[in-house]
Amino acid sequence: MVKIMASKLRDVELITDTGIRLGWVYDFSFDEETGEILVIVAEPDEDLDTSEFVTDHEGLLLIPVSAVKSIGEVIIIDASKLAARSKLKRLPKPAQSRARSVLSGGLKKKD
């Protein structure tokens, strides 16, 4: 397994496997207990309609790490695994409450 420093991923472009430019890596959110990376926090592309995507209170995209297909000069995201608002509404109750606690935690931008 190749190790990549998180600092090297800052500002790397995120593109879906269907060719949609999502934006650029801003930060990562992780589980404090396990250290597992949960989501990529991304600044959305200016042409992206974010209304169908999960975002934080500042409008940053929240992309589940499980949707990452490959990392190189760009990060390729599996569009079928990309969390969309419409998909979150259909989750069973336990998963829905876990998703809220992870995704609506209010990530803060660094000044």
Automatic annotation (TrEMBL):
What is this protein called in UniProt?
Photosystem reaction center subunit H
Where does the record place the region Disordered?
A: 92-111
Classification via InterPro entries: PRC-brl_dom, PRC_barrel-like_sf
Source organism phylogeny:
Archaea, Methanobacteriati, Methanobacteriota, Thermococci, Thermococcales
One short Pfam name that applies is PRC
Q: Which source organism does the UniProt entry give?
A: Thermococcus eurythermalis
Residues of the PRC-barrel domain:
4-81
Name the domain of life this protein comes from: Archaea
